[in-house]
Write a structure and sequence with these properties.
about 70 residues, about 65% helix
């Protein structure tokens, strides 16, 4: 869940960096307020559509959709 991930941001950021290597750690020194803001950041840096980035975030924090 996003709120839990924000509480432990250093560990979350490390996990995200492994999955999304182009992630800008300087821009994300503090967690975004909304997961949608993180998805926007990832979409821009990883050539993803907004919906692809949102789905990747959802899977990271909530697990894959069935």
């Amino acid at each position: 869940m996003w709120s839990e991930s924000k509480r432990n941001w250093p560990a979350t950021l490390a996990l995200l960096k492994r999955r999304f290597p182009r992630l800008d750690q300087v821009a994300l020194q503090t967690p975004p307020d909304r997961i949608e803001d993180l998805a926007h950041h990832l979409a821009q840096l990883h050539d993803l559509t907004p919906s692809e980035a949102q789905q990747a975030c959802d899977e990271c924090f909530d697990g894959p959709r069935r």
